[in-house]
Model the fold of this input.
Amino acid sequence: MTEQLRQRMGDQPLPIPNNQPDVQSLLIADIEERRQLGITRYGTALQPHNGRDALRDLYEELIDAALYVRQVIEERAAAPAGPACPHCHTTTPSMKEPSP
Done:
């Protein structure tokens, strides 16, 4: 790396390299899997000018995503602090706002 890593005031700590797969590669694999699912289910990969309203599709997907996020927040708030997942070595903090 030719430039030094820089951390700006207010940033989270720099990522710690580890032996886990990089997220970009995981995302690429997920996209390919979704592409194949679309071809299997609809007979084609997602293409522009396909007769659907992409903005409406996105909006509906974002509503679903917000629901899943809210579910996780509620579940974390209701559960005692503990391992975030069996593969992580961190604890799950409460997502509720601290009391004044």
